[in-house]
Amino acid sequence: MINVIREPLIFEISSPGKSGVRLPALDVPEKLDVLEGLTVREDLEGFPEVSETEVTRHFTRLSQMNYCVDFGFYPLGSCTMKYNPKLNEKVAGMASLAGVHPLAPEKLAQGNLELMKTLEKLLCEITGMDAVSLQPAAGAHGELTGMMLIRAYHEAQGNPRKYVLIPDSAHGTNPSSAHICGYVVKEIKSNDKGTISLEDLAREMTEEVAALMVTNPNTLGVFESDICQIADIVHAKGGFVYMDGANLNALAGITRPGDMKVDVLHLNLHKTFSTPHGGGGPGSGPVAVKKILEPYLPVPIIEEKDGQYHLNYNRPKSIGRVKSFYGQFLVMLKALAYILALGPAGLREMTEIAVLNSNYIRKSLDGIYHLKYDSPTLHECVFSDKFQKDFGVSNLDISKRLLDYGLHPPTMSFPLIVHGALMIEPTETESRRDLDLFIEAMKAIDREARENPELLRTAPHITYVRRLDEVQAARNPVLRWEKK
Amino acid sequence: MSYIPISDQDKKEMLARIGVESVEDLFCCIPESIRLKGLLNLPGPLSEPEILEYFEERGKKNSFDRYLSFLGGGAYDHFIPAVVDYLSSRGEFVSPYTPYQPEVSQGTLQVIFEFQTLICQLTGLDIANASLYDGATGAAEAVLMANRVKNKKRLLVASNVHPEYRQVIYTYTRNLGLEVVEIPYDRLGRVDQKGLESAMNSHTSVLLCQSPNYFGVVEDLKSLGELTHRHDALLAVVISEPLSLGLLEAPGKLGADIVTGEAQSFGLPLSYGGPYLGFMACKKEFVRQLPGRIAGQTVDAEGRRGFVLTLSTREQHIRREKATSNICTNQAHCALRATIYLETLGRQGLKKLAWLNLQKAAYALEKLTSIPGVSRKFGGPVFNEFVLEFPTDWNRIKQKLEEKGILGGLALGDDYQGLEKCALVTITEKHSREKIDRYAEVLREVLK
Predict the structure, then answer these.
(1) Band of residue A414 on the pLDDT scale cut at 50, 70, 90
(2) Closest-CA residue in chain A for B27?
(3) Which residues 219-258 of chain A have a CB within 8 Å of chain B?
């Protein structure tokens, strides 16, 4: 049904004179002299003209071309694609909360400030850290903010330092954030267990190193068991341990970064705390710090005194602002509703089942797909296409074939240390039936790889479009519609 | 309430398949010494009705909605057609990830492609990205981009750019060895061209200005473009009220090389400041330096049109520390809302809405300045915001207005020396004549 209609671009179904909105008439005297001094545009050339019916059909049809968590299993590793509770959307839609202007006087927004402060406190408890800034807009933005805090601290001691150490298994945002913060990145090779080697770290860690950025569990899903020793090595040279909190869904309620001697980390509310990804945002990337970095947090910070909440901008050591206003407020509301719904036992259970589901998949597919590292894993596991490569089938082909089974593929080709990687993170919100559907599909695809590899190389077969030519897209970029 | 669909029986069978006794065993890789001994000290679990009540109670502590507000300054209260909320709340738009698998993400990708097209049409530039976090980070990304394009270390920023945007620019640039110089404004409230001329030198990569600027005044972009280009620098324009583009000439047609901004006005609620929607457009020749995701058109194996994320060699997941920006997750769902909003209004609707804002603001300006003691601070032309000057410190007047249920405008004295008696007043289509008249009436009373 949905593949029958090819949905054009809105510009292609536009015709003059139509509009989907009914605006009020002008209720003040019209004056033409207000245009004096303004350069007015002739027209909105090419802008669409459609009715409300056409808009509704257009977006309804477009929506039906999307795979989503509401539809099915979405095992993107490191992305934590868990179910998004509908209650949270209702909360974020409350006009009494969402209708407030960000520059409204504080005393007219006490409810919102209280909610933000409450979320800060709960995140401190969950992470074992001392203070939180909710301002960063997403994970990478949180990383950048965290690294800026570290730099500001070192600068205050007289030397910003030069290097940041990052394991080769890290997310691409880590080196990129460190670079934008003015640091030179030094990569640390993972050992044969897929983790950081203490010897290598000790050799690289000097007094010119500002920080180590570590993801724990790392992108293989492997917990850095030596994390406290790692932190000791870094601290001994006056450096900081930055933790990428993207994988907190493996730890919440079980252990806390703060107890692992981590100095600063960012959280992804859109991962661990269930806020929807929206097709690529908005996220929210709060930064949590130990006392030593607190004076450097972005302004404003929220303070509470005698039950009254207040925004404090007077923070001489602060790195300044990283975003307008206070962050992704509506996303914060959803995360807060989620934490309140779970409670302490629920949060722990969330982590336990996420790890159970991941290990269930790992065990079920072990031997059928190649596991480069046999270290125990937590919330995600990383297979590769090594066995299927013998039949001329790559991780890309396997992923595209999964689409024909009505399933979303895992993260592909990441982490970089596993060639042909298939990185699977099921999360705790998948039923046994959905896990088994995925496992059976992966087994069937392995059989197909042996018997009919061409079927995989030409997959997907039943989606709205077939495999897309990404090379052409990059070579001859067409980045907008233009009137012929 | 953990949203977990695994039963105790499932758990037992799954553990058996894995070959461990208990879930605890799966965490054996975490040293005992750092494991929590008990449960975290958190509230809850709360039931669904309890959670609703909890948030409703906090909502009651916000008294903002009991006031008649004339606040703007980068966050605008515009009317949002019902179809925007309805369509954008579909699960197929709310719950997918970034479109890494284009064959099952054509909805999201086509929306981004349409969004990019709309932004190009509005700004008069060749290409646009899929979104940035907000106007402030957009402004910071714009100057960093100009710096890469020109490979020069000096940036000029107009002092009438939104104060928060300027603060973010400082935060972003301070670690990169870049020099940021602020350009004063003139008595029209516009960038002071003499000051600009004297600040320009051969090391300057860009002038970033805002139009309409933080005083609501529309800049003379044509002159600014000519001046910056004469010095081999780029003109970057940041826009916090993009509805103005429904009326004003596209900055790209007036000489802007980069246009960035905040598109909250296009279908996003005030949301106490976020999530909002950053956008960025530029000339074609700068495409390799553009930050953020970009959707592009291509064909599938059967030759049919389709869309993919493209030019990703600019981005962090490929280039790592050499990427144009560290941005990964952006504001896709906000861009979706803006796309639905703009397509619903369309060519006629957007023009009409911009006209309503312009005319109502003009009416309000005339009405308010007819009150003895109230005058227009800057002579430059405005769209839907303007600065008024009062006989005494604005904070005192503001207080009295508040007591009568009116939020009369934003104070400027904290950010601009000499503007302690001034306020920025914002008018949108939601201000009926009656509301504007009421403001005038109360103000007259207060100033007596």
Answers:
(1) confident
(2) A378
(3) 222-223, 225, 227-228, 251, 253-256
Confirm or reject contact between A484 and chain B (CB < 8 A). Answer: no
Instruction: Collect all residues of chain A within an 8 Å Cβ-Cβ radius of residue B299.
Output: 468-469, 472
Would A463 be classed as within a structural domain?
A: yes
Average pLDDT score over residue span B20-46 = 97
* Residue of B136, B144, B139 lying closest to B74 (CA atoms): B136
Is residue A250 located within the same domain as residue A381?
A: no
A128 and A143 assigned to the same domain: yes
Last residue of a domain, one of A307, A341, A375: A341
Angle at B44 between CA B13 and CA A355, to 5 degrees: 30
CATH number of the CATH domain containing A262: 3.40.640.10
Alpha helices in B89-161 (DSSP H): 91-94, 106-123, 135-150
Distances (CA, A) of A28 to B77, B246, B417: 19, 20, 35
**pLDDT at A220 (0 to 100):** 95
**Hey, what are B427's tokens?**
């008018």
- Set of chain A residues whose Cβ sits within 8 Å of the Cβ of B102: 465, 468, 470
Domain that holds residue A162: 87-341
Compare CB distances from A465 to B73, B126, B304 and report the shortest one's residue: B304
CATH topology assigned to domain B82-340: Aspartate Aminotransferase; domain 2 (3.40.640)
**CATH assignment, B64-80+347-447:** 3.90.1150.10
- Kindly report the nearest CA distance between residue B19 and chain A, in angstroms: 9
Q: Is the pLDDT of residue A1 over 50?
A: no
- Three-state SS letters, B341-359: HHHHHHHHHHHHHHHHHHH
Classify residue A32: in a domain, yes or no.
no
- Report which of residues B323 and A215 the model is more confident about: A215
The torsion angle over the Cα atoms of residues A47, A52, A53 and A55, rounded to 10 degrees, is: 40
The boundaries of every CATH 3.90.1150.10 domain in chain B are: 64-80+347-447
Which of A11, A12, A479, A483 is the best substitution to test chain B (most B C-beta atoms within 10 A)?
Answer: A479
Contact A111/B62, CB-based, under 8 Å? Answer: yes
Give the ipTM: 0.98
Per-residue pLDDT at A2 = 52
Residue A305 sits in the same domain as residue A362: no
Taking CB atoms and an 8 Å cutoff, what residues of chain B touch A352?
Answer: 23, 26
| A371 shares a domain with A309 | no
Same domain, A134 and A227: yes
Question: If we measure between CA atoms, which residue out of A338, A358, A480 comes closest to residue A427?
Answer: A358
Contact residues, chain A, for B329 at CB < 8 Å: 138-140, 270, 277, 280-283
Whether the pLDDT of residue A157 is over 90: the answer is yes
Cβ within 8 Å, pair A408-B326: no
What is the distance between the alpha carbons of residues A401 and A187, in angstroms, rounded to a whole number?
Answer: 35
In a domain, A82, yes or no: no
Confidence of residue B324 (pLDDT cuts 50, 70, 90): confident
A317 shares its domain with A373: no
| Total Cβ atoms within 10 A of residue B50 | 12
Domain ends where: A283, A313, A341? A341
State whether residue B108 is helix, strand or coil: helix
pLDDT at A349: 97
Model confidence pLDDT, tens digit, residues B344-364? 999 999 999 999 999 999 999
Q: Helix A432-451 vs helix A395-404: angle between axes, to the nearest 10 degrees?
A: 120
**A322 close contact with B: CB closer than 8 A:** yes
Contact at CB, B162 and A324, closer than 8 angstroms: yes
Are A467 and B92 a contacting pair at CB < 8 A? no
Residues A327 and A230 in one domain: yes
Pairs of residues, one from chain A and one from chain B, whose beta carbons lie less than 8 Å apart = 681
What confidence tens digit (pLDDT) does each residue in A88-97 have? 999 999 999 9
Q: What are phi and psi of A290, to 5 degrees?
A: -85, 160
Are A169 and A262 found together in one domain? Answer: yes
What is the number of structural domains in chain A?
2
Q: Is residue A48 part of a domain?
A: no
